[in-house]
Structures are given as structure tokens and as C-alpha cells.
Amino acid sequence: ETGVTQTPRHLVMGMTNKKSLKCEQHLGHNAMYWYKQSAKKPLELMFVYNFKEQTENNSVPSRFSPECPNSSHLFLHLHTLQPEDSALYLCASSRQGQGRINEQFFGPGTRLTVL
Amino acid sequence: AQSVAQPEDQVNVAEGNPLTVKCTYSVSGNPYLFWYVQYPNRGLQFLLKYITGDNLVKGSYGFEAEFNKSQTSFHLKKPSALVSDSALYFCAVRGLIRRGQGGKLIFGQGTELSVKP
């Protein structure tokens, strides 16, 4: 295991539902990321948090709302999603700063299906 | 802008044969390059990275990658493929960094490696 956990692993929701994805890292990292992985498309970076501060929002629709209460936890709140939002949502973490070029560690992902 | 390209959607190799998964990059500044592997229903696992130094980088599970600046390539290689190497492989480049930001990665579209017995 990579030290990054995600729950739930699978989620089916209707377009009017509100749900949240959770990510937790046990690696002492200070940066966390949300990615979207759709079939036949490259991984799309959604959000970046560095020391709990959002440093990047990659033009993500407002129906996706991230939350980072501390350096170990990252949430993605979902509301009024569309069927095209169905994808694998991956969380990652890394240690940044002091000129380091470090790899990211990924969680297993949440497979989201929007009906 | 930083980008990577993986020109092959799929690579088929017989077990025991050498394998190569191709990656080319385009960057402003120094290239920081990564390879990841994704097994079915799993997240991405880090294989190796090039930051500086030797052009041949060794990584996990017997994989290595060769950095070639003149050809702007970073191909992944393994001398003898295993059936268990069958997976989806992603090349990535470090995105442009602004002060105080985390190190985002820009991924290629992925290459499906199939190793047959």
C-alpha cells in the first residue's frame, strides 16, 4: 500500500444527491491533490493543496468543492453532478518545498457513477 | 507549456522479451520526468524519476528509463518482460512551479502494456 487511503472505493449517486469523497495520507506529506481519470483521457489535475492552502484550481466546475482541514486529510464534496462526471477520482500526496522534486503517492481511487 | 506524449496506446510483448514504452516531452526549463504504473482497479504507483545526473535511471520492479535530451525522450525499458508487468503506464512531467505551490504533474494519456506468455 502507498500510505494514501480513499473512501468510499465505489459510489453511485443521482444528479440531485450530495456526497463527499475522503482522502487520508499517513506519510507526513504537506501537499495533496485531486485528479480525475476518465476512460481514454489523460489524468486531469483538479485541485492542489499546499500546507492546507489551495494553490491551484484547474478550472473545475463549482459542483466540485474541495476541503483540506489539515495536511493529512482532503475531501471532495459533490453536489448536482452530471453523468459525464462519472470517473475514477484519485487523491495523491507529496512532500514539497526546499527545492525538492518529489514523486506523488496515489490512493486507490473512488469509482464514481452518476446516474 | 509543459507536456508529455505517449505515442502508443498499446504495446504487446512476449514474456521474456525486452520491452520499451515510449514517452516524449516538451518543457520550459529543466525537465523533471516520472513514470507511474496503474494495475486494474488500483491507483498509480511510482516507478522512477529523472531529476538530474545519469541519463539512465533505475526504478522499481526491474524497470529503467533513459533520458535523452537531444530527442526530448524518456522511454521506459525492461530487459525481460513478465506477464505480471501487464498494466497501464503513465509518463509525467513536473508542471511549471509558482512560488508557494505544490508540485503538480502533467500526465501523458497512458500506454497499455500487454505481456503474453
How does this model look, in words?
Chain A has about 120 residues and is mostly beta strands. Chain A contains no helices and 11 strands. Chain A has strands at about 5, 10-15, 20-25, 30-35, 45-50, 55, 65-70, 75-80, 85-95, 105, 110-115. Chain A is globular. Chain B is mainly β. In chain B, about 0% of the residues lie in helices and about 50% in strands. Chain B is built from no helices and 12 strands. Chain B has strands at about 5, 10-15, 20, 25, 35-40, 45-50, 55-60, 65-70, 75-80, 85-95, 105, 110-115. In chain B, a hairpin with a 4-residue loop joins strand 8 (about 65-70) and strand 9 (about 75-80). Classes of the chains: A mainly beta (about 120), B mainly beta (about 120). The interface between A and B is medium-sized, with 31 and 26 residues.
Binned, the helix content of chain B reads under 10%
N-end to C-end Cα span of chain B: 41 Å
Arithmetic mean of pLDDT of chain A: 91
Following the backbone from N to C, one meets helices and strands of chain A in this order, namely EEEEEEEEEEE
Which class of secondary structure composition applies to the elements of chain B? mainly beta
Assembly state of the chains shown: heterodimer
Cα distance spanning the termini of chain A: 31 Å
What is the count of DSSP helices of chain A, taking H or I runs of 4+ residues? 0
How does the major sheet of chain B shape up? Answer: 6 strands, mixed
Fraction of residues in helix of chain A: under 10%
Number of strands of chain A: 11
Residues in β-strands, percent of chain A: over 45%
Over the alpha carbons, how many angstroms does the gyration radius of chain B reach?
A: 14 Å
Report the uncertain regions of chain B: none
What is the number of strand segments of chain B? 12
Structural class of chain A: mainly beta
Order of helices and strands of chain B: EEEEEEEEEEEE
Shape of chain B: globular
Tell me, rounded to a whole number, the average pLDDT of chain B: 91
Q: Which two chains touch over the largest interface?
A: A-B, 31 and 26 residues
Largest sheet of chain A: 7 strands, mixed
